[in-house]
Amino acid sequence: MTTRRPRPLPDRVLVRLPWLAHFFIAWLVRLRPGSALRTRLTEWSFRRGFDAINRNDPDAVGPLAYEPDAEVWVSGLELVSTKDCYRGLEEYRDLFVELEDAWSDWSWAVGTVLVAGKRTVVVQLDLTARGRVSGVEVTVNGAGSVYHLSPRGRIKRQDFLIEGNGWQKVLEAAGLSEQAMSENVELVRQPIALKSRSRRGLDERIFLRFRRVVIPVTRVAWRLPPGSRLRRGVILRAAQTGFAAINRGDFESSFLIYHPDVEIITPAPLVAMGFDPVYRGREARFDYQRKWTAEWGEMRFLPTEMLDLGERVLFVGRIEGTGLSSGAAVDTDWAVLYTLSEGQLIREQPFFDHREAFKAAGLSE
């Protein structure tokens, strides 16, 4: 089995020295479940794990985080997996082989990571994949997984629910509710208003010229808690600049902090109009916007509120403009859910229904 991407340096160190990973998670599980330190480190640990899964690298996950006799129960992958339960590290690797045989590509986007008890962690997931034989795109929003840890902090049992209502079932399996989950997620809401710019400001010209500096700055701000004044200011300023840029057709400035492998989930109404269900890569994001402009003309994105959920940010507002072919006025609800990692935007999911957007973010209006 070959991995899709090289291992980052931290993973290379941990695979070479697994006792470091075992020491870390044994220490982590002893921290108080409600502590900010345990929450942050648990999020980092699981996001690192799914990054390894996305590059098809089970050796950077299984031996480091799972007990040798761990059980992985799978629901919703009947067309891919050959069994309901995979026991032990060898069968854990078999699951990866089955995924690789069934899908030419797959990607798990991690949403909420919640420490639900002393030795329980729940993770909200979205899946996008493409059938290796059929070429059909598969998208599952609202999946999830619940992890039961051993006293050593390693995963003893995992319940993997890859279905549309999997997140709700995961919360129930962990003895939680969506309300309890939202109460455990630090949520910061603030209004946002755009100032139209007919051309790039000085700050944008500087950022585009020195992009290598921008990403480290946003990475530092992103590691701050959502309630941090600095974090709020950086995200708000980046959003105002980005939306103003896209409204004037300046894609290079608007997509400045997009990751090279960013993933865009297309709303169902646009898929029905001929858009691809999923676009991958920064260049594909440019193509998506060009097609949008060709179909709809110059629509203005007008966010009115920003909701910072920690690893994700939800913007809600509306779109207004005039249809390119029909000439009819357009004014409709709009929202977009962004997922960021290490200062770069890795996933974008737009909506034309506020209720759907809040549900995807695990919130109620």
Fold blueprint:
Layout: H1 9-16, H2 18-28, H3 36-54, H4 62-65, E1 66-75, E2 85-87, H5 88-102, E3 103-117, E4 120-131, E5 137-149, E6 155-161, H6 166-173, H7 178-184, E7 188-191, H8 202-209, H9 211-222, H10 229-247, H11 251-254, E8 258-265, H12 268-272, E9 278-280, H13 282-296, E10 300-308, E11 312-322, E12 329-341, E13 344-351, H14 354-360
Parallel strand pairs: 1-6, 8-13
Antiparallel strand pairs: 1-2, 3-4, 4-5, 5-6, 7-10, 8-9, 10-11, 11-12, 12-13
Summarize the structure in words.
It contains 14 helices and 13 strands. It is globular and about 60 Å long. The longest helix is centred in the first third of the chain and has 19 residues, at 36-54. The protein is α+β, with helices and mostly antiparallel strands and 365 residues long. A hairpin with a 2-residue loop joins strand 3 (103-117) and strand 4. It starts with 8 loop residues before the first helix and ends in a 5-residue tail after the last helix. Helix 1 (9-16) packs across helix 2.
Descriptive tags:
single chain, 365 residues, alpha+beta, Nuclear Transport Factor 2, Chain: A, 13 strands
Choose one word for the global shape: globular
Structural class: alpha+beta
The level of helicity is 25-40%
Alpha-carbon distance between the two ends:
45 Å
How many domains would you count in the coordinates?
2
Low-confidence stretches: none
Order of helices and strands: HHHHEEHEEEEHHEHHHHEHEHEEEEH
**How large is the share of residues in beta strands?**
25-35%
What's the level 1 CATH class of the largest domain? Alpha Beta
- Report mean pLDDT, rounded to a whole number: 84
Overall number of strands:
13
What does the main sheet amount to? 7 strands, mixed
- Please give the radius of gyration in angstroms: 21 Å
CATH-defined architecture of the largest domain: Roll
CATH topology of the largest domain: Nuclear Transport Factor 2, Chain: A
